[in-house]
Amino acid sequence: MFRTITTLVATAALSAMLVTGTALAGGPVTIKFSHVVAENTPKGQMANKFKDLVGERLSGKYKVEVFPNSQLFGDNKVLEAMLLGDVHMAAPALSKFSRYTKKLQIFDLPFLFKDMAAVEKFQNSDKGDELLGSLERMGLVGLGYLHNGLKQLTSSQPLVVPADAKGLKFRIMSSNVLAAQFKAIKATPLKKPFSEVFTLLQTRAIDGQENTWSNIYSKKFFEVQPYITETNHGLLDYMVVTSKEFWMSVDTADREIIKKALDEAIVFGNKVAAKKAMDDRQKIVDSKRCKIIILNDAQRNQWVEVMKPVWQEFEKQIGKDMIDAAYKSNM
Ligand code: SIN
């Protein structure tokens, strides 16, 4: 695996030269931005905002083309494609980087962050910056974090306590931490691309999945899952990434303009995320398509107690100092 990625890093150098070549040939350089969600989600809206800002500020030199809904690449392929120069930017969920670094697994630890304010505080800290740089040796540059929100469990049967999930099959993103989390409740985790989740749920090939309100709403999971348990047990956030070779091929002044446009788009996207978490939850309630289960403290504590030992399992790979720092951001 390491060799495959190393080969990709070398190939990226050549691709970057080709991108620069396009600019020299006269036309604007196209920055392809690929993502897997709908356009009306926090990530979709952030990407479109970024496209508009670059269009306004670097018209004729750079243009951003956004490919939503896994149209160009699914999350399982996008980073390889980026190292090959076939796409220039993406914002995969933090859970989807484990082939490139084990450090980002911290964001998957169940019940680590009590709310999005704690997430924000940690991501803006020195440790958050350190994690942003954790992809560099693989030829990728972390440009910023983007929020979606906290995850809920959707299911074909009511989940009130962890024992209710025993023996059920849940789709997860490609993360060993998430696999361990579901094994802890004696369920079966299945790593599947986001683009397949609706069909897997609809055909009952799986019993449930975990996701944010905006993804559950925009991908219509609530139409094929009769129950949602409001657990807020984990985080779904993103890292906007590019390849080092592409990024360094952009001249310094333009790079600064592009980065500033991205920072502004992220601020915008984070506002959308906070609002959508509430609005999309309400739309699901109003649809009356499924029952939302709200846990009392005793029930929620059972989920915490069963899932939290997963932290210990990944402590060596992530680093205890990192976990402690993240935990402290709740205070
Ligand atoms: C995403 O929000 O980008 C996809 C999340 C998932 O794969 O569940």
Walk me through this protein's architecture:
The protein is an alpha/beta fold. The chain has one domain: 3-Layer(aba) Sandwich (D-Maltodextrin-Binding Protein, domain 2), CATH 3.40.190.170. 47% of the residues lie in helices and 18% in strands. It has 13 helices and eleven strands. The strands form two sheets. A six-stranded mixed β-sheet has the order 7-6-8-5-9-11. It has a five-stranded mixed β-sheet with strand order 2-1-3-10-4. Strand 1, helix 2 and strand 2 form a beta-alpha-beta unit. It is globular and about 60 Å long. The two termini are 39 Å apart. About 5% of the residues have low confidence. The structure holds succinic acid (SIN). The site of succinic acid has 10 residues, from loops.
How would the blueprint of this fold be written?
Elements: H1 2-24, E1 29-34, H2 42-57, E2 62-67, H3 75-83, E3 89-90, H4 116-123, H5 126-132, E4 140-150, E5 152-155, E6 169-172, H6 176-184, E7 188-191, H7 197-202, E8 208-211, H8 213-218, E9 227-230, E10 235-243, H9 244-249, H10 252-287, E11 291-294, H11 297-307, H12 310-318, H13 320-328
Parallel strand pairs: 1-2, 1-3, 6-7, 6-8, 9-11
Antiparallel strand pairs: 3-10, 4-10, 5-8, 5-9
Helix pairs in contact: 2-10
Succinic acid (SIN) binds at residues 36-37, 43, 93, 148, 173, 194, 211, 215, 236.
